């Protein structure tokens, strides 16, 4: 064994011993606050997407978080993240949804409620759900539970004051970052966390690639029980949405509200 290998062996054994010496409650606390960045293996050629290799599936099942709906049913759930408004795109999205008679949920931040009250009111008036995307868009895995609860309460109150809608059952954690502690805190406030099974890199407003790009990225991933994540700041999404909906209908899919999700699937 070389001197370097011997040193690595000593360091490795020392680290293992140090970890083993951690009090059980410290190890539990570390697991409780460990951050996870949501990711998944995309659907391809009709094969369902998967989170089985991501390391957090048991945690999502424990807290009832959503990845997929019922994969035996040709149902789709359309979800939008609205951190801020750009170029009137949400209005155009709402126009398409109204024309096609398709329900959706919009996950909004405190900034969005404050700056776009008329659009928020339109969302609820036209029968869409409004979900919680936190007040200030922080990494909520780093926050103590009381701060998580405050972030959520501030959005819910602002939406209720604006629209009269008191019900807010769904949450999408900013940037898809979560922890056991964060999921537990939000669940205690009555929220179900909504992740996704279809997505693509659509949030960069300086790197839009056209409606065809959005259309291809979404429609090639379609699968039963899919939760589709789109960012409302994407001009590609706004331009392609009508075609995406038409193609999904052509393939025999029905768009449903999250309130209609009867079964959650984990795989």
UniProtKB/TrEMBL annotation:
GO terms for molecular function: hydrolase activity, acting on carbon-nitrogen (but not peptide) bonds. One of its GO terms (biological process) is carbohydrate metabolic process. InterPro entries: Glyco_hydro/deAcase_b/a-brl (IPR011330), NODB_dom (IPR002509), Polysacc_deacetylase_ArnD (IPR050248), Spore_PdaA (IPR014235). It comes from the Bacteria. Residues 74-256 form the NodB homology domain. GO terms for cellular component: membrane. This is Delta-lactam-biosynthetic de-N-acetylase. The lineage of its organism: Bacteria, Bacillati, Bacillota, Bacilli, Bacillales. It comes from Paenibacillus herberti.
């Amino acid at each position: 064994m070389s001197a370097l290998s011997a040193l690595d062996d000593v360091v490795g054994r020392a680290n293992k011993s140090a970890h083993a010496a951690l009090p059980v409650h410290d190890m539990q606390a570390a697991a409780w606050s460990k951050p996870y960045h949501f990711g998944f293996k995309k659907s391809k050629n009709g094969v369902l997407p998967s989170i089985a290799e991501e390391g957090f599936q048991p945690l999502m099942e424990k807290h009832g978080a959503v990845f997929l709906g019922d994969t035996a049913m040709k149902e789709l759930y359309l979800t939008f993240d609205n951190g801020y408004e750009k170029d009137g795109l949400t209005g155009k999205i709402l126009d398409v949804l109204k024309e096609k008679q398709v329900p959706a949920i919009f996950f909004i931040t405190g900034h969005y409620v404050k700056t776009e009250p008329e659009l928020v009111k339109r969302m609820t008036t036209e029968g869409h759900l409004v979900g919680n995307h936190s007040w200030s868009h922080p990494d909520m895995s780093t926050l103590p539970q009381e701060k998580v609860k405050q972030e959520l309460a501030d959005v819910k109150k602002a939406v209720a004051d604006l629209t009269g809608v008191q019900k807010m059952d769904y949450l999408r954690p900013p940037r898809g970052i979560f922890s056991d502690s964060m999921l537990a805190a939000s669940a205690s406030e009555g929220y179900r966390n909504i992740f996704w099974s279809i997505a693509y890199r659509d949030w960069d407003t300086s790197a839009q690639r056209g409606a065809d790009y959005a259309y291809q990225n979404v429609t090639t991933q379609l699968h039963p029980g899919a939760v589709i994540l789109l960012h409302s700041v994407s001009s590609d999404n706004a331009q392609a949405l009508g075609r995406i909906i038409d193609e999904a209908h052509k393939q025999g899919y029905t768009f449903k509200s999250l309130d209609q999700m009867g079964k959650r699937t984990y795989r």
